[in-house]
Design a protein that fits this description.
Layout lengths: L19 E2 L5 E3 L5 E10 L8 H9 L7 H13 L3 E5 L8 E5 L5 E3 L5 E3 L5 E4 L4 E4 L3 E2 L11 E9 L1 H10 L5 H8 L7
Parallel strand pairs: 2-5
Antiparallel strand pairs: 1-3, 3-11, 4-11, 5-8, 6-7, 8-9, 9-10
Length: 191
């Protein structure tokens, strides 16, 4: 009989690598009506560099450009499992933690593409202890972007309400792979 391609694939269970973990106070969800689930996972002593050739080729075939091993893995997971992930440079986060909250009206944020936007009280953001670091489910922020000197990551896997992501993406003129997935709903079991 016919079988739906892709189906419900789950990655195999793997032990946590040394230097990885989840700490108390790492994530605060201050807007539970817009963020039903948020996992923050810390990876320490990482090395950012080029991805292996097989991954660069795979991403190229998917229409994506390779950036770095960390960013490429998040993009690969997005394309293979349909669930967006985001990696923050944890050393650039105030207090090394995140708060999922609604933005303050006219609060400024510079996104990964270098665009400075003014937020609305209708925008869900991932903030550190001080400022917004990502437009939740849409686009990361430039301040906490992973770069060559990154040594500590906070890896995000989350579920955000589709209607809010759709409205935020449109308000700020974004149509990203991440917002596309969240707008249509992602598997609660993955994020």
């Amino acid at each position: 009989g016919a079988r739906k391609r892709g189906g419900s694939r789950r990655p195999p269970a793997a032990p946590a690598p040394a230097g990885a973990g989840v700490g108390p106070g790492l994530v605060t969800i201050a807007a539970p009506d817009r963020c039903g689930r948020y996992f923050g996972y810390v990876l320490e002593d990482i090395s950012v560099g080029p991805s292996p050739l097989w991954l660069r080729v795979r991403l190229h075939r998917l229409g994506l450009r390779a950036i770095s091993n960390v960013v490429d893995v998040t993009n690969y997971v997005l394309m293979e499992l349909g669930h967006p992930l985001h990696a923050f440079d944890r050393d650039k986060l105030a207090e090394g933690r995140v708060v999922v909250r609604m933005a303050v009206d006219e609060e400024p944020m510079t996104t990964l593409d270098g665009k400075t936007i003014r937020l609305s009280t209708h925008d869900l953001v991932i903030a550190d202890a001080k400022d917004p670091q990502a437009l939740a489910g849409v686009m990361g922020g430039a301040h906490s972007a992973v770069g060559g000197g990154t040594k500590s990551l906070l890896l995000e896997a989350a579920w955000f309400g589709p209607q809010g992501i759709r409205a935020t993406a449109r308000r700020h003129g974004y149509a990203t792979d991440s917002s596309y997935r969240f707008e249509r709903g992602v598997d609660h079991g993955v994020g």
